[in-house]
Amino acid sequence: MKKNPVIPYALIAVIGIALVIVISIVGIDQREAIQKAEEGGDTQQSAEDKGEGASTDDPEAIFENTCASCHGADLSGGMGPNLQKVGGKLSKDEIKNTILNGKGQMPAGLVPDDQAEALAKWLSEKK
Questions:
Q1: Is 54:66 a contact under the CB 8 Å cutoff?
Q2: Rounded CA gap, 23 and 19, in Å?
Q3: Where is the Cytochrome c domain (predicted)?
């Protein structure tokens, strides 16, 4: 008695169809959760998800969350310029202006005004 060569392909097709159905059902649930969150129905969204992960009164935390990816965790630079002695080159107001309005490849509006003030004060002390 010979084995039917179509049976393995049929099994693979049935398993594949079942897998697609399961993934679709999971995806529908995720889509509903995302829509609910966008409509404001999910009030448990963390502060970091909203871009408010750093406290206004902790400029080091603000820098770590917003600026360190370009300027380096130790202010030594990377994609962005070195900020270790920026206070010796720029005033607090000039630093704040750069933070709020951007400069070169640095985009504007990365942090709100109160956080920009705290960051500018902290960076102006780096001399």
A1: yes
A2: 6
A3: 54-127
Tell me the pTM.
0.56
Summarize pLDDT for 8-21 with one digit per residue, the tens. 999 999 999 999 99
Q: Name residue 106's beta-bridge partners.
A: 103
Q: Is 106 annotated as a binding residue?
A: yes
Closest CA to 74 of 83, 66, 61, 65: 83
Cβ contacts of residue 71 below 8 Å, gap of 6+?
63, 77, 78, 80, 81, 82, 83
Is 79 annotated in a binding site? The answer is no
Q: Is 70 known to sit in a ligand binding site?
A: yes
* 1 marked ligand binding residue: no
CB 50 within 8 Å of CB 56: no
Q: Dump pLDDT digits (tens) for 84-96.
A: 999 999 999 999 9
Q: Are 75 and 126 in contact (CB under 8 A)?
A: yes
